[in-house]
Protein backbone atom coordinates (compact mmCIF):
# COMPACT_ATOMS: atom_id res chain seq x y z
CA UNK A 1 0.00 0.00 0.00
CA UNK A 2 2.86 2.40 0.72
CA UNK A 3 3.87 2.23 -2.96
CA UNK A 4 0.37 3.36 -3.99
CA UNK A 5 0.23 6.57 -1.93
CA UNK A 6 2.47 8.90 -3.96
CA UNK A 7 0.92 8.02 -7.31
CA UNK A 8 -2.61 7.96 -5.93
CA UNK A 9 -2.10 11.40 -4.39
CA UNK A 10 -0.70 12.61 -7.73
CA UNK A 11 -3.79 11.35 -9.57
CA UNK A 12 -6.11 12.85 -6.95
CA UNK A 13 -4.48 16.28 -6.94
CA UNK A 14 -4.22 16.51 -10.72
CA UNK A 15 -7.81 15.31 -11.15
CA UNK A 16 -9.06 17.78 -8.55
CA UNK A 17 -7.26 20.65 -10.25
CA UNK A 18 -8.54 19.48 -13.64
CA UNK A 19 -12.13 19.41 -12.34
CA UNK A 20 -11.82 23.05 -11.22
CA UNK A 21 -10.19 24.05 -14.54
CA UNK A 22 -12.98 22.46 -16.56
CA UNK A 23 -15.59 24.15 -14.36
CA UNK A 24 -14.00 27.61 -14.45
CA UNK A 25 -13.22 27.64 -18.18
CA UNK A 26 -16.63 26.37 -19.18
CA UNK A 27 -15.10 23.34 -20.86
CA UNK A 28 -17.99 21.12 -19.88
CA UNK A 29 -20.37 23.23 -21.97
CA UNK A 30 -18.48 22.73 -25.23
CA UNK A 31 -20.10 19.56 -26.47
CA UNK A 32 -18.05 17.17 -28.53
CA UNK A 33 -18.35 13.52 -29.48
CA UNK A 34 -21.00 11.71 -27.36
CA UNK A 35 -21.74 14.92 -25.48
CA UNK A 36 -18.28 15.00 -23.90
CA UNK A 37 -15.96 17.96 -24.33
CA UNK A 38 -12.37 17.66 -25.50
CA UNK A 39 -11.17 18.74 -22.05
CA UNK A 40 -12.87 15.73 -20.50
CA UNK A 41 -11.21 13.42 -23.01
CA UNK A 42 -7.81 14.83 -22.01
CA UNK A 43 -8.52 13.95 -18.39
CA UNK A 44 -8.06 10.26 -19.26
CA UNK A 45 -4.30 10.83 -19.37
CA UNK A 46 -4.18 11.66 -15.65
CA UNK A 47 -5.05 8.18 -14.33
CA UNK A 48 -3.18 6.49 -17.18
CA UNK A 49 0.09 8.24 -16.33
CA UNK A 50 -0.39 7.68 -12.59
CA UNK A 51 -1.07 3.97 -13.12
CA UNK A 52 1.74 3.56 -15.61
CA UNK A 53 4.42 5.14 -13.45
CA UNK A 54 3.02 3.69 -10.21
CA UNK A 55 2.95 0.08 -11.41
CA UNK A 56 6.32 0.48 -13.17
CA UNK A 57 7.85 1.77 -9.93
CA UNK A 58 6.28 -1.07 -7.96
CA UNK A 59 7.57 -3.64 -10.46
CA UNK A 60 11.10 -2.23 -10.14
CA UNK A 61 11.03 -2.76 -6.36
CA UNK A 62 10.25 -6.48 -6.69
CA UNK A 63 12.96 -9.14 -6.84
CA UNK A 64 13.85 -10.01 -10.43
CA UNK A 65 11.21 -7.47 -11.49
CA UNK A 66 8.64 -10.26 -11.78
CA UNK A 67 5.01 -9.23 -11.40
CA UNK A 68 1.84 -11.17 -12.07
CA UNK A 69 -1.29 -9.69 -13.58
CA UNK A 70 -3.22 -9.98 -10.33
CA UNK A 71 -0.49 -8.29 -8.29
CA UNK A 72 -0.24 -5.43 -10.79
CA UNK A 73 -4.03 -5.10 -10.90
CA UNK A 74 -4.29 -4.90 -7.09
CA UNK A 75 -1.51 -2.31 -6.96
CA UNK A 76 -3.28 -0.27 -9.65
CA UNK A 77 -6.57 -0.58 -7.80
CA UNK A 78 -4.98 0.81 -4.63
CA UNK A 79 -3.54 3.71 -6.63
CA UNK A 80 -6.97 4.43 -8.13
CA UNK A 81 -8.62 4.15 -4.72
CA UNK A 82 -6.39 6.86 -3.22
CA UNK A 83 -6.76 9.06 -6.31
CA UNK A 84 -10.51 8.54 -6.47
CA UNK A 85 -11.03 9.56 -2.86
CA UNK A 86 -9.08 12.79 -3.38
CA UNK A 87 -10.85 13.57 -6.66
CA UNK A 88 -14.19 12.85 -4.95
CA UNK A 89 -13.31 15.33 -2.21
CA UNK A 90 -12.47 17.95 -4.83
CA UNK A 91 -15.81 17.33 -6.54
CA UNK A 92 -17.66 17.56 -3.22
CA UNK A 93 -15.98 20.89 -2.49
CA UNK A 94 -16.90 22.14 -5.96
CA UNK A 95 -20.53 21.12 -5.52
CA UNK A 96 -20.69 22.82 -2.10
CA UNK A 97 -19.45 26.22 -3.23
CA UNK A 98 -20.78 26.41 -6.77
CA UNK A 99 -24.42 26.38 -7.69
CA UNK A 100 -24.87 23.23 -9.74
CA UNK A 101 -28.35 22.51 -11.09
CA UNK A 102 -27.25 19.20 -12.65
CA UNK A 103 -25.87 17.12 -9.80
CA UNK A 104 -26.96 13.92 -11.57
CA UNK A 105 -24.66 14.85 -14.43
CA UNK A 106 -21.67 14.93 -12.07
CA UNK A 107 -22.64 11.59 -10.56
CA UNK A 108 -22.87 10.10 -14.05
CA UNK A 109 -19.47 11.51 -14.95
CA UNK A 110 -18.01 9.99 -11.77
CA UNK A 111 -19.42 6.59 -12.73
CA UNK A 112 -17.87 7.00 -16.17
CA UNK A 113 -14.54 7.93 -14.60
CA UNK A 114 -14.72 4.78 -12.45
CA UNK A 115 -15.27 2.62 -15.53
CA UNK A 116 -12.42 4.32 -17.40
CA UNK A 117 -10.12 3.87 -14.39
CA UNK A 118 -10.86 0.15 -14.17
CA UNK A 119 -10.30 -0.32 -17.90
CA UNK A 120 -7.03 1.61 -17.75
CA UNK A 121 -5.95 -0.46 -14.76
CA UNK A 122 -6.71 -3.63 -16.70
CA UNK A 123 -4.68 -2.42 -19.69
CA UNK A 124 -1.68 -1.22 -17.68
CA UNK A 125 -1.65 -4.41 -15.59
CA UNK A 126 -1.63 -6.50 -18.75
CA UNK A 127 1.17 -4.32 -20.09
CA UNK A 128 3.46 -4.81 -17.09
CA UNK A 129 2.81 -8.44 -16.22
CA UNK A 130 5.48 -10.94 -17.05
CA UNK A 131 4.64 -13.68 -19.50
CA UNK A 132 2.98 -16.58 -17.73
CA UNK A 133 4.87 -19.85 -17.98
CA UNK A 134 1.93 -22.23 -17.72
CA UNK A 135 -1.37 -21.39 -19.31
Task: Walk me through the structure.
- The relative contact order is 0.18.
- The protein has 135 residues and is mainly alpha-helical.
- The chain is elongated.
- Helix 1 (4-25) packs parallel to helix 4.
- The chain has helices at residues 4-25, 38-42, 45-61, 69-97, 103-128.
- The mean pLDDT is 81.
Query: Helicity, in percent?
Result: over 70%
The pLDDT mean sits at: 81
Based on DSSP secondary structure assignment, what is the total number of beta strands? 0
Largest sheet: none
Whole-angstrom Rg? 16 Å
Number of helices: 5
Strand content: under 5%
The CA-CA distance between the termini, in Å, is 29 Å
Record keyword descriptors for this entry.
about 140 residues, 5 helices, mainly alpha, about 75% helix
Brief digest:
With 135 residues, the protein is mainly alpha-helical. The protein is 73% helix and 0% strand.
List the helices and strands and how they pair.
Layout: H1 4-25, H2 38-42, H3 45-61, H4 69-97, H5 103-128
Helix pairs in contact: 1-3, 1-4, 3-4, 3-5, 4-5
Amino acid sequence: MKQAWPYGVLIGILSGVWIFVIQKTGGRYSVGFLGISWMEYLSVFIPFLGLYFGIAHYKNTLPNRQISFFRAFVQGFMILLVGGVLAGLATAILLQYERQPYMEEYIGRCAGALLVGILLNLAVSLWFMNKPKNL
